[in-house]
Amino acid sequence: MGTVITFKRPDGKDASGYLANTARGNAPGVVVIQEWWGLSDQIKGLCDRFALAGFDALAPDLYKGKVVPYHDMDAANREMNSLDFMDATTQTVRGAAQYLARNSAKVGLTGFCLGGAVTIIGATKIPELAAGVVFYGIPPEQAAKPADVKIPLQAHFANKDDWCTPELVNGFEKAMKAAGKSLELFRYDAEHAFVNEQRQAVHDREAAELAWGRATEFFRKHLG
After folding, report:
1. Of 14, 1, 122, nearest to 55 (Cα)?
2. CA 145: distance to chain centroid?
3. Beta strand pairing call for 29-33 and 3-8
């Protein structure tokens, strides 16, 4: 449904990503950020779903063509740890937001796992954004303080998550409330990465569909 495009980062360098356009013109945009596996077919499929829901969706390729197979967690961890999160967010992700905002549309940001953390960093660093939806990812507080979040956030977390743990989620929620920030937070009795239908060991269809409905409704409210 979508296509691979090249777009400019604020520093003038080229970046690439997967773009799925909705049928109508002047639609709001959603930047979609990958899991630690890379820009997989599953993430491209979510862009297609956003397009069917009425949003232009662009997933920037933060690993520059590298996609890690689902069984190789060590390789995924290496790729994630070698990623410059600040450069990726303030340049590549912001460039994607600027691309979608070029027809003066409102733009949101969403991401999964690694991309969830990037979404929170983006909520503090990318002025083009109007809203963000986080899926099971929280960055270290030195990367993005809740007090610096500039947009309404919705967040989806898994109670059986051993990476983005319930304790971490509680701390994030508490810090956001203390800072007086707008946060809708949902917890699911599911595993980390429950939205990823390509990973049958963790996918929870009921939780995924509930979260998807909440996310698209949130973006319609804030992006139009």
Report:
1. 1
2. 17
3. unpaired
Rounded distance between C-alpha atoms, residue 97 and residue 92, angstroms? 9
Six token digits for residue 135: 């899926």
Token representation of residue 180: 């007086």
CB-based contact 168:138 (threshold 8 Å): yes
What are the residues whose beta carbons fall under 8 Å from the beta carbon of 22, sequence distance 6 or more? 50, 51, 52, 53, 54, 55, 56
Q: How confident is the model at residue 163 (pLDDT cuts 50, 70, 90)?
A: very high
* Sequence-distant (≥ 6) Cβ neighbours of residue 32 within 8 angstroms: 43, 46, 47, 50, 57, 58, 59, 110, 111, 115
CB-based contacts of 91, cutoff 8 Å, min separation 6? 9, 10, 11, 13, 15
Positive or negative, the CA dihedral 210, 213, 218, 221 is negative
Q: How far apart are CA 205 and CA 195, in angstroms?
A: 7
pTM for this entry: 0.98
User: pLDDT by residue (tens digit) across 25-55?
Assistant: 889 999 999 999 999 999 999 999 999 999 9
Length of the chain measured in residues? 224
Contact 39, 18 (CB under 8 A): yes
The tokens describing 214, both together, are: 């909440």
Pick from 95, 133, 96: nearest CA to 112 = 133
Q: Find the angle CA(214)-CA(61)-CA(88) to the nearest 5 degrees.
A: 85
